[in-house]
Amino acid sequence: MEIKIGSKEMLTILHIFAWIIFIGVCIEAGGIIFNTFFAMVINPIGAKNFWMKIDLSNLMSYDKGYFLVITSIMSIVAVMKALMFYLIVKLFHKKAFDFTHPFNSILKQFISNLAYLTFGIGLFSIWGLKYAAWLRLSNIYIPSLEDLRLGGADVWLFMSVILFVIAQIVKRGIDIQTENDLTI
Hints:
single chain, 184 residues, mainly alpha
C-alpha cells in the first residue's frame, strides 16, 4: 500500500513544523535575552549557567561589556531566526498567497524578507565569530560557536544569496505573468 501525500497535506505538515520551530526559536531568543538581563542586573552568578547551560562566567568576570556584546549578538541572531519563522507562519495563517497565480508580489516580498533576514543572520554570526576569536586571543575562555548558537555564518550567507536569486526569478515571473494577463 502506497501512501500519497498531496500538496495540501504537505503544506499542512509544513505549517505545523513552522509553528513548532517558531515557538522553539522564540523560547531560545527569550531565554537568551532574559538570562542576559538576569546576569547583568540581578545576579552575575547567572552567567555560570547561562541559556542551555553555557558557562559565560569567565567572560562576565573579565569584562561585563564583552559579556554584553556576545549575548547581544546571540540575541540578535535568535530574534532574526524567530522573525524568519514568523514570516513563514504568517504566510500560512493569512492565506493571502494565491496558488492559482503563484508569481505575485506577496511571494516576492516574502522571499526578499527571508533573504534580508538570512543575510543579517550571516553578518551577525560572522561578527560573533570574529569577536569570539578576538576574545580567545586575549586568553578568555569562551564556549564554542555552536554552543553560542553563532555557527554556520557561511551557510546563512550562502542561503541569502540563493534567496536573492529566487526573489529575482519570482520578480521576472511576475513580469511575464502580468504581460500574459494583459495580452489575453
